[in-house]
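From the pipeline queue, job 12 of 40. The input is one protein chain; the requested action is below.

Action: predict structure.
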Amino acid sequence: MNFDFSDDLKQLRDQARRFLSEQCTPAVVRRSLDGQETFAAGLWKEMAEMGWIGAAIPEQYGGAGLGYEGLCVLAEEIGRAVAPVPFSSSAYLASEAILLAGTEAQKKSWLPQLADGSVIGCFALAEGTGNPDPRNVRVRMAGGRLTGSKWPVADGGIAHIAIVAARDEAGEIAFYLVDLANVPKRTLTTLDPSRDHARLELDGVQAQKLGEAGGWASVQALLDRVAIMMAFEQVGGADASLQMARGYAMERFAFGRPIGSFQAIKHKLADMYVALELARSNAYYGAWALSAGSSDIPLAAAVARVSATEAFHLASKENIQTHGGVGFTWAVDCHLYYRRSKNLALAFGGPPFWKNRLVDLLETKNAAQGR
């Protein structure tokens, strides 16, 4: 079975890489990192005009209809550029939640606006620190209004709408769509200021329930899909870190020879490459599972998430080490990738959460097969 992308998707990848290399330079990322702008609004507008945000949204709802494989290709290039845009929050969190749980009327109302970038969406699940857990969902719906707080919410400070996981009057978890125009927000400080994070105070806020489906299973189904797409972001960042380390190792001379010729540096680069290729293979399988609607999506998501998180962490860390003393400085761009690796590693469940989920899924599968 061939898990590689089609020629059309490879062309999309090449075009995306060229565009981002020109329009999303480290200087653009640093403007958000330094607090000069919350996110790269100009870059976001151009992405919307090219149809990237609505890549996986069906054409009947105003999207590009490229499917999940197209979205994964774009996610990898956005991760490679560490782009300071709310792509993950809007393109494969809010949009995917509406596609999974929304009514036909809700899809027709909101998906075209998300696809053209005129509306930025986010997903509010966490209520403080900790991994995703139904016991941690305490925000409640009563009389058409939500009560409670959500934090940290990625891109919550710049989003127009939020998909909120909350409990209904019967105590069941469901998705609610909230207009954030009048919702109090407090900006949170994180290790990666190039991505906005906020606390949303939802006390007395009106909300509209997404469809009739609910329960923690709906939340986990969304997280599984997001884990695969986020794995591609991590693969892109890991690849960029490896290439950056390799380039420096070939250019930097010590004792009259490139430092890349020293065994210690060779081993670092080799370890980064092996971890990256393992993560890429697992991410590709995840993209296939998503596109095929396979029953293996949960397992593919956990495998992709674990391997991509480890690969990006290793690559971003060893990139700094390869650069030596200058790698720790603000002027060199190594820290942009290290910050993003930490940010993505903790988004919607850290490594222990996804490792435990992987073990549970394998045990269940083996038991079903009588092993």
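Job complete. Residues 216-251 form the longest helix (36 residues).
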